[in-house]
């Protein structure tokens, strides 16, 4: 779609702060987007054919939500870290394998969606982000959860459909983690540490599709404490 076809979108965005130009067959981010730097709060460029994000992205200093999902992006630029007000980043369904080295400077991030990419390691840049609420890393090639999770602050972590066979020793120390999704990985029953069930704040852990039957969790030390948290949650809901 040519610039003339998008002009109305730009005019509206200058008033509302919201620009949605998804599914327009764009190969690049139009320069007109960056000219809206003073106004934009929400930018949706999903379902296009964008292969790279220019350094000019740093001009969008008031941006709170950025959706670049379902594009052809392989690398996120270091300049992304200047979006200090960013609260939601969605780059799912791309070909990204790592995050910018100083990604943890984005300390207002609440939601990060990285599913269906090419991550082989859990991104350590997600640690120490104090305002995180939700992280989705499903459908990647991650093989382990590394140590350092005591500095992981999200309440919900989705790692389903990876290749995880090892969980970190300190995963139970993630201070706010309550929902952990690990379906369809390569975990044995021995990989589920008693501390994760006994000492964490997790009330919902999904382990279907691993190398053991989920009913075998009953035999793991700490299972009773885990079910007590789950039951307490259900009582609050009803």
UniProtKB/TrEMBL annotation:
Q: Which UniProt keywords apply?
A: Leucine-rich repeat, Repeat
Q: Which InterPro entries match?
A: Leu-rich_rpt, Leu-rich_rpt_typical-subtyp, LRR_dom_sf, LRR_domain-containing, LRR_R13L4/SHOC2-like
GO CC annotations, alphabetized: cytoplasm
Q: Which domain of life is it from?
A: Eukaryota
- Note the SUPFAM superfamilies from the entry: RNI-like (SSF52047)
Give start and end of each Disease resistance R13L4/SHOC-2-like LRR domain: 25-111
Q: Which Pfam families match?
A: LRR_1 (PF00560), LRR_14 (PF23598)
UniProt-listed PROSITE patterns: LRR
Cite the PANTHER family for this sequence. Answer: PTHR48051, RAS SUPPRESSOR PROTEIN 1
Q: What is this protein called?
A: Disease resistance R13L4/SHOC-2-like LRR domain-containing protein
Q: Which organism is it from?
A: Parnassius mnemosyne
